[in-house]
Amino acid sequence: MSATKKSHVAALTFPFASHPSVLLHLVQRLAAAAPSVTFSFFNTTVSNQKLFSRIKLHGWDNVKAYDIYDGAPEGYIFSGNPLEPINNFINATPGIFKKGIAEVVDETGLKITCLLTDAFLGFSVDIAEELGVPWVPFWTAGPHSLSAHLSTDAILRTLASAGKAQTVDRTLEFLPGLSAIRASDLPIELLNGNYDQPFPKMLYNMILALPLAKAIVQNCFDALDPIVTNDLRSKLDKVLNIGPLAFPSPKSSSEFEDEFGCSAWLNKHAKASVAYISFGTMLTPPPPELVALTEAIQEKQVPYIWSFRDDPKLPPLKEFFERTSDIGKVVPWTPQLEVLAHSSVGVFVTHCGWSSLMESIACGVPMICRPFFGDQKLNRRVIEDVWQIGVGIKGGVFTKDGMLNALDLVLSKETGNRMRANIAELKQSAEKAVEENGSSSEDFKNLVEIVTSQQDVL
Ligand SMILES: O=c1ccn([C@@H]2O[C@H](COP(=O)(O)OP(=O)(O)O[C@H]3O[C@H](CO)[C@@H](O)[C@H](O)[C@H]3O)[C@@H](O)[C@H]2O)c(=O)[nH]1
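Above: inputs. Below: predicted complex with uridine-5'-diphosphate-glucose.
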């Protein structure tokens, strides 16, 4: 009797913001490409509840989600500090994952043959070594921020020698492809160099671990920024650019299903006339900025569709939403990719999260940028100064004049058309990358090979 061989991939999430949903998206694509492989998806209970209230795993026979402990001490009450749950989680790693994996191996009788994880979880390299399997980290942000993180020591040394006065405007021309990036665009966790704190320490440990990975996956495509990609490939073993991970289906430019009626509302508007507003899964701008943003929209009478995370019946936006109900639609959640792909959307007002950025490129929609933290300022710089497919708000925060000016630029014929032409070009390159033999499709095949290369004999 011949022995049965089986691959079993453990996917480990960083359970905050859109990180789990991006990793799940990748797992689902892999599961479809390799139906004989079992995928176990490890995420905290709270994050799984949120994630699977929107996404269903029915029909994904080879993907199973497992809950792990989130590290919160007994009796813990959230203080309102967003870093607190992140620190609790980090302090409980890697133990929570090791325990989860051991239980699942016990339950299924299937040994783990590959570890696919959020790149933030640099400690996974040790788990992979203990298990004797390859580690494949997924960097869910962009190549520019990965490049900056990998050069943390060089950046800190250069800034220290530049002297305080020049530091903020110091550009990173000593790093290939990053000459437009300024020190002030960098994530604070990278700049502060304080590795006593859990999150900066986790990021620093990640950059020490990445060179030991079997391959590193990114949600981008080669032609997006070949200089940065080539530089990364010179420093890391195998960088697989498999994006854009999310691509609109050809028919979604006019019709799609959604529980809040976005499609029907968008169908009533003229081509490229609507502003889509969303600040991702974690953020709402502070009240004074919200007011400034709404004043500009109202003055300009721009039709808008807003994915609003907070309660729209509370001040300061309640009255604005009521006053502008003839030109606006506010919903708690949109099928964002389909909304962006709709022909009536002309501009995306965004916080510059990486998935949003890639979706905007995949749909060819220019952006108005109001970045907040992490990689977002760096992404804004690339959007505005390198690719010229959007514009930042003058002064960095929403003011009525700043927003009016940004709307004028993006919706105008001259500057707006230039941005639209630039983003159309990127969109075209993205389409080529995901074609049958395109660079992203080839890298994806490579990834499938890696995650299925090791098998356990049953
Ligand atoms: O109504 C909505 C709002 C959001 N989304 C989706 O939610 C995701 C949001 O992702 P992203 O734009 O990356 O924002 P965040 O969730 O804020 O992402 C975090 O993680 C990213 C890396 O993965 C970083 O680039 C960001 O700075 C960080 O905040 C996207 O896929 C959107 O399509 C929807 O589908 N509908």
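The radius of gyration is 22 Å.
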